[in-house]
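Justification of computing resources. Each target in the renewal requires a structure prediction run like the one illustrated here; the chain below, 371 residues long, is used simply to show the kind of job we budget for.
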Amino acid sequence: MTGVRVLVGTRKGAFVLTSDGRRERWEVSGPHFGGWEIYHMAGSPADPSRLYVSQSGGWFGQVIQRSDDGGATWRPMGNEFAYEGVPGTHQWYDGTPRPWEFKRVWHLEPAADDPDEVYAGVEDAALFRSADGGASWQELPGLREHGSGPAWAPGAGGMCLHTIVRDPVRNGRMYAAISAAGVFRTDDGGKTWLAANRGLRTEGIPDPDAEVGHCVHRIAMHPSRPDVLFMQKHWDVMRSDDAGGTWHEISGDLPSDFGFPIAVHAHEPDTVYVVPIKSDSEHYPPEGRLRVYRSRTGGNEWEPLTKGLPQSHCYVNVLRDAMAVDDLDSCGVYFGTTGGQVYASADAGDTWAPIVRDLPAVLSVEVQTLP
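Resulting structure tokens:
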């Protein structure tokens, strides 16, 4: 029977959760790399045995690990991320210049058709690519060479390139989201980029056509409809129907339009999931009730999904990379919280149950389908 593997990165190690297609009972492996911050853990769509991990530590810095056996064993890969060209600075919070500085890898995006090809989004915001399974990395400097680069400034979590979305239809098209610069699109494999932020509005940027300065938290796409993008922004849930050319708000009847993750149902391109939190200063669910919200209409009309989730005195957060879906016949939805719970729904969000509790704060959740 087809199964699933849920990959969980936390503040203190990585965990691998495995189940069959019923998704009722789970085996938990970990912690792997105990004590390390695991910013992201991703599996290759081309090879279910191939996993990549981004681990960070204050003493040893940044390490990329790779597994070729589904997480049973690991080995460190190339960890040299050298910025190429593009001398100069970007902006600090107060607008003063600051040199580019590599800090950590926020996001790993393996290619769909080659287990040895993987992209990395880093802080300070830059995009890297490996063609040899993580053994070596090269920057795609065209992104930082975008004319707006010197005006990029960090969000509260740093100036991170946290989301990479590849178009499954148009070879060479890819999106990168940067906090707090915005969304950028390439149509030539990363050589040149254009800002894709028209229609975004951000406090302190009164110009609706401002090219950069937007704190995008996450973007998502359904592979069958790659010109349609969904975004959870620092305030506002947004949608683009023209490959990021323009955006319009779809926050509709949500209790709050602030949040971090956003995901799209595996088989229904108009079914979207978000997890609202109260505000940019109060990072917990409105009214202390943990609710996932689902829109079956591509936005504006949202329904709360609460069955199996705590509905009183719950003050956890769900971070930008901590929500994912599987592609089984009945789409599974998964998310992890800063309280260390990982919740799963095997029925597209109608009911929820915790897979595991009491982990360290969850930073990322990804899913692999197993043969």
